[in-house]
Amino acid sequence: MTAISREDVAHLAKLARVEMTPVELDHMATELDHILSAVKRVQEVATQDIQPTSHPLAMTNIFRDDVVKPSLTNSEALSGAPAKIDGRFKVPQILGEE
Amino acid sequence: MTNIYSSASEMADSLAKKEYSSVELTQQHLDRIADVDGKVSAFLHVDAEGALTQAAAVDAKRVRGEKLSPLAGVPLALKDILAQKGIPTTAGSKILEGWRPPYDSTVVTKLKEAGVVILGKTNMDEFAMGSSTENSAYGTTQNPWDLSRTPGGSSGGSAAAVAAFEAPLAIGTDTGGSIRQPAALTGIVGVKPTYGGVSRYGVVAYSSSLDQVGPFGRTVLDAALLHEVIAGHDERDSTSINAPIPQVVAAAKRLDVKGMKIGVIKELSGPGFQAGVSQRISESLELLVAAGAEIVEVSCPSFEFALAAYYLIAPSEASSNLARFDSMRYGLRVGDDGSKGAEEVMSITREAGFGKEVKRRIILGTYALSSGYYDAYYGSAQKVRTLVKQDFEKAFGQADVLVSPVTPTTAFKIGEKSEDPVAMYLSDIATIPVNMAGIGGMSLPVGLADEDGLPVGLQIMAPVMQDDRFYRVGGTLEAALLSKWGKPLLANIPELGGVA
Q: What is the ipTM of this complex?
């Protein structure tokens, strides 16, 4: 049985905002199925009683004092922008027609 | 006389004694790059003007008698994943082609403050996803030992530059072995410091719970000197450890392992490893015993599952980290002809800007994190991570350091594994557990395999923030090997000569 179908990959690609051609979808579905069958071994030892580890360091909520420090100027912050207008990022339309 | 074949510490001594200037030393390395990089392809960008300006500034300070840092005036190659102000920074991806960061990463700031001369940016697998540099959008780097083979990856450009005498030092990053594996495959020293030991501010993020920046050098002392320059707490990186830097330079000079217990990991030896690799590792252990260390065998049964867990955790974190490449604020934008909405432009740009392996990992990570599969994949992988940590804790109860081969084989041929992702992933089998547990590890060159005459790396691992231990063991073994061989391992590398 395959773990992941071509339709699944198309849906995931949409969620991840990556366009894919039909040929790419075919390849990706086969490869991911191969990879998933290798990595699903983790389920063999991941029993209920084991606590998950999300991070190697046991640290939470690192705070610093809320003090204003020198940072990028407006033109520096915009220096890599694909498009800009009036000191701001210019982006394609975000909302619908109205 | 300048000598590009000497170590960074020897160069530093000669500079301090004013035997030559940093400008002369830098120019000689730039000449070497011009001569041989056509064959090696280690560099994506060479900043000759910037390097010579930095070198001249160090020379001027030295003439004025100002106090300088130990590596002041010594050249270095920088992996193209670290932001350097005004210098192209691509992370090996088309999506960042032409981007010039408006700021320096903390590591670059520290290098500049120490007067280390940055020669340029080195090639890498796109977003550090790969073990051979074949996933770079800008072509593959060749291994200077055999140009038909890969130098490993993802920091393959940095490792190849050091092995080819294009730079005495380099910076890499290591998420699953990306410093240690290329160091092993090119016969140099590479260190993945303890997670949180070196700031990641300004480093393009791949898998944030695993990524770490570290040094490459041709000797253990060189790596230690660079380690001390880049390490330390940084309030701009919330995962940076606020504790004193381990005394790695002193440890590298100690040359004594009497009474140390060295644990050999049972699960990282045997039939899965090339005979010539295992042979050189065994001989190294004999040298350590002769130097007064004691060998014990330790067992880490969960390591068998670490690779699978890594290839769920890293893609999951990558799918989230790479969401920032949205074509809105910097980097590539494709298809913005006025008729399309932002999300459509985003999708078209990411299709055009990301390579195959990056897309593969984004989709895999999106899958592993999606509702209905989260517990079975990402959740299970995090539990394996707990088991790996517990195995290390138990093993470090029995030994001061742990050892294994760095890689199952010596350098493989370019193209040999590029069509089979799972085969490629297997080259990280011995290095991944270290990242999962957040500890540090070193790759030390311990000889050439009999079958193919290619370098073999010994991995030496130590508990969190005890990085000095692997420098101590590495320095001692390096000295023993040097007296056995009568010359450094890199003296055996074929001369690359000029451009063909």
A: 0.94
